[in-house]
Amino acid sequence: MKIDKNKIIDLNKDIETKHLIQLDSIANQLQHKDIDGQDIIKKLKIFQVAIPSWALGAGGTRFGRFSFGGEPASLEQKIDDIGIINTLTNTAGAVSLHIPWDIPKDYNGIKEKAASYNIVFDAVNSNTFQDQPDANESYKFGSLSNINKAGREQAIQHNIEVINIGKKLGSKSITVWLADGANFPGQNNFQKALKNTQDSLQQIYQSLPNDWKMFIEYKPYEPNFYSTVIQDWGTALMLAESCGDRAYTLVDLGHHLPNTNIEQIVATLLYKGKLGGFHFNDSKYGDDDLTVGSIKPYTLFLIFNELVYGMENNPQNPDLAWMIDASHNAKDPLEDLIQSLEAILIAYAQALLVDQNKLREAQEAQDIVTCQEILQDAYRTDVRPLVRESRLQAYAAIDPLATYRALNVRKNLIKERGKKSTATGL
Ligand code: PSV
Ligand code: MN
Ligand code: MN
């Protein structure tokens, strides 16, 4: 199913008057603070977030999977779904593929399809946390860290293969997330596991094309519950540094122990020029992969505040790869992704409102009350009219969720693809 742009334009007309009144009101408020609303709208309009190919079906948990119906059964259909989101939001102009779940059968065909929706191929993800049916070696006891050379070698070759697939699609980066670790004390020699991982990553890095980046993800626990080889940002940074200039750390919001100061990690990595990419999601307890902004929107804002500061002040850090990494089994996945994109744009817009000069002055004056006021004033501003306007100017939907429902997208997908789920993914 392809959404007809004219239908979006028609539906926009019904709410445009109300939207323009709200836009006018915030533009006036901002003018009093010497902020140009159009400037912010321009930045929102070009902001693009990659959709993970594994988030388009109703996500599974180890306890069960409840189909939504009309889920994509092929990579082509996954691209169609991202096309729907991108047409509605103008923010989903990229896809992050997981290999081997999404190996293309027809490279030209898939590239053409993606291009028809203005979708590019962002980071490709390797998978050494599941055994493949035809594999010689098992990852049960680790992949890049495996004590057996043959296991490590297979995992290295897989990553090189993923790079080769990405090259054919126009991707420019690979994300490596490892499940490697131990469930019980004594199971692994920590130093050997780390060294093996470092050696393996360095070998993969040797195969990285000159214009590619490698992103190394960390995670404190799960699926291993005693120790994880790449457990935190420090380990990921150390490994990236041991590989070279084009290796970076990737921050996944759900990959932190409760109450970790993620915004400080972001700032530290930006300062070192080593923040490569971002996986957005939200969580209450652990790697919950919930909708972005659904649990801790203020934290998301504080993170964006550091990102905006970094984008303006840290030329040593390259442009970031923005990706969503969320998937669960209760909502319509497309509605969920639309909500995530909305939360990301809202936090970004709020962060753009922070008066960096005033904040610096207040910091220099050690006026912590004013520092807090500046941040919370930005956070408490309803920036949604700016976000909506950024979409209207791009001929996308003022209200993507309402438009998605008004156009009966899910019903049509079920009609086209059937009720049963065949989607692959987490
Ligand atoms: C597993 O924790 C995970 O969510 C990682 O965050 C990866 O990025 C993703 O799966 C895909 O491999
Ligand atoms: Mn992730
Ligand atoms: Mn995760």
From TrEMBL:
Amino-acid biosynthesis is among the record's keywords: no
InterPro entries: L-rhamnose_isomerase, Xyl_isomerase-like_sf
GO molecular function per UniProt: isomerase activity
Assigned keywords, A-Z: Isomerase, Manganese, Metal-binding
Name of the protein this chain belongs to: Sugar isomerase
Species name: Aquimarina gracilis
